[in-house]
Design goal:
HATPase_C_sf; single chain; 319 residues; elongated; EC 2.7.13.3; transmembrane; Heat Shock Protein 90; kinase; 13 strands; Helix Hairpins; Beta-Lactamase; five-stranded antiparallel beta sheet; alpha+beta; 3 domains
């Protein structure tokens, strides 16, 4: 019977540590892997020296179960007299964290078109003239289509890539119309210099650029916001530049939940730039930020394989 039990322990999915009088008398391969020890070197050693974790050693003494962080892993641990059981929940924990982050990102991604649609509906209710009403209805249709594409792009509904070759200038009118209320409120305008053509998902680029422009309007000072594209040996870059106090730590801003030092009085979730980087990765690009002499620039890159070179002069990414 003892041989059968040991054979079962050897092939078990959970880690098994058997101990007596405070010393390890057996541990299976899974336990050795989770504890990052060599089996032959810990047999006969004290629990504390073998487990190398005070919480695990204490649990062996008092019994019970717990979820612990050790060896860069999340372990569910159960202790009964003479036996310690270990179950690796690291992947499960990471999946839960990814799901939670995805939920926050999706809420952020859906909020922008929904807010715009509500503004358009309110304008229609307040009574727009014929041409203005038609323009509002067209914008509503476009945003409804974008919401549909967002739903279809959820992981459970993932379809083949919607990337195509398109001119960045295609996005200009749609973005200006959508941002018109915010621009008017701050007496701001956008200067466009985007003659390049890229290969990507237009809706993803639209969403990324919308987030960058939204940040520029919220946090920038001055009236002019510049959107400019250029090309170098790596591909095309696309930047949104605004005046303001130059920032120091840009990389931190691309982490979900992080916000800049000037954002305390501005409503937001700190997800916009994290989403921009995720969107850029979808077409093989990157998202970055850099300080200017009198402001800041946030940009996107499109790798050389995702660029359809137009008949325009080539410029280098600004230093």
């Amino acid at each position: 019977m003892e041989t059968l039990l040991q054979a079962a322990w050897e092939t078990a999915r959970e880690g098994v540590v058997v101990h007596a009088e405070g010393r390890v008398v057996y541990l299976n391969p899974v336990a050795a892997r989770l504890l990052e020890v060599e089996r032959d070197k810990v047999l006969g050693r004290s629990l504390l020296l073998a487990l190398r974790d005070h919480k695990l050693e204490a649990l062996c003494r008092v019994g019970g179960e717990a979820t612990l962080e050790t060896r860069n892993r999340t372990l569910w641990v159960k202790a009964v007299p003479g036996v310690l059981l270990l179950w690796d929940k690291t992947d499960e924990q990471q999946r839960a964290e990814v799901l939670e982050e995805s939920s926050r990102v999706l809420a952020h991604e859906f909020r922008t078109p929904v807010a715009g649609m509500l503004s358009l509906l309110e304008a229609l209710q307040n009574g727009l003239s014929g041409p203005e009403a038609q323009e509002a209805l067209q914008l509503l249709y476009q945003e409804t289509q974008r919401l549909r594409r967002l739903v279809e792009d959820l992981p459970l509904n993932r379809r083949p890539s919607q990337n195509r070759t398109f001119a960045l200038e295609e996005l200009q009118g749609r973005l200006e119309r959508f941002l018109a209320p915010q621009l008017a409120q701050k007496s701001a305008w956008i200067r466009w210099q985007i003659p390049h053509t890229v290969w990507a998902n237009p809706d993803a680029v639209y969403q990324a650029l919308l987030n960058l422009l939204d940040n520029a309007i919220k946090y920038g000072v001055g009236s002019e916001i510049v959107v400019e594209s250029g090309q170098n040996n790596q591909g095309v870059w696309l930047e949104v530049r605004n005046r303001g106090q130059p920032l120091e730590d840009f990389e931190r801003l691309f982490v979900a939940g992080q916000r800049g030092m000037h954002a305390a009085n501005v409503r937001g979730t700190g997800l916009g730039l994290a989403l921009v980087r995720r969107l850029a990765a979808g077409w093989g690009g990157t998202a970055y930020g850099r300080a200017l002499e009198d402001g800041n620039a946030f940009g996107l890159t499109f790798p050389i394989g995702a660029v359809a070179t137009p008949d325009h002069s080539t410029t280098q990414v600004p230093a």
